[in-house]
Amino acid sequence: MSLTLTDVTLTYADGEDRLTALDRVSLEVPRGTLTAVVGPSGSGKSSLLAVAATLVTPDAGTVTVDGVATTGLSRAELTALRRDRIGIVFQQPHLLPSLTAVEQVQVMARIAGRKPRSARGRAMDLLDAVGMAGQAGRRPHQLSGGQRQRVALARALMNDPTVLLVDEPTSALDHERGAAVIALITRLTHQRAGATVLVTHDRTHLTAVDRIAEVHDGRLHGAAPVRRRGGCGAVPS
């Protein structure tokens, strides 16, 4: 397994009480697979992603990333783990307005201390992989919403993470562009043999994912494999 959550519980202060965001959640995501986590707004999807990304420490339970248990790691060690082994694609691309597409991707390598020349070559390869090589010199305001999401995906892959976490990638896209982004994430997951978790409230584009797990009121219900029909995935109802 590349990502494992075991009996994870997360609560937040709610006045004098505690609100349970995640209730003994367990999830295993093997290498080379994409698991979609679905559920309505407020169900706990984003909390699950934040815990998996080591951005939030759970009240109880364990998170293991690429064989490394995160319990007890220092803040610096968690930062290094995210930098080297976890790629995160947020709901909003959060691209820097002054940087071109290729520079957006290169930033991650600079943070990791890689040489600029080799970093640019890898950044261009990743932009090519997501269909954005022809837009490498453009800045965010010159790109469409779908193009910005593709640049954000390339950026998340720059340091060759073992685990990729994607938050609501289709929320600001129309049907066609949303389907294209999900298909791209699925293809790259299988090609790179990484472990991907994709959080969404929209089942429309999930025909190609490997597993679907549902979150309701902070509880995770299974991670059922997607049934395939004639080479195409069928999303279980």
Describe this structure in words.
- Keywords: ATP-binding, Nucleotide-binding, Transport.
- This is ABC transporter ATP-binding protein.
- It holds the Pfam family ABC_tran.
- GO terms for molecular function: ATP binding.
- The radius of gyration is 18 Å and the shape is globular.
- Strand 1 and strand 2 form a beta hairpin.
- It is 32% helix and 31% strand.
- It has a domain of 157 residues: Rossmann fold.
- The longest helix has 18 residues.
- The two termini are 27 Å apart.
- The strands form three sheets. It has a six-stranded mixed sheet, with helices on both faces. Strands 2-1-4-5 form a four-stranded antiparallel sheet. A two-stranded antiparallel ribbon has the order 11-12.
- It is built from six helices and twelve strands.
- With 237 residues, the chain is α/β, with parallel strands linked by helices.
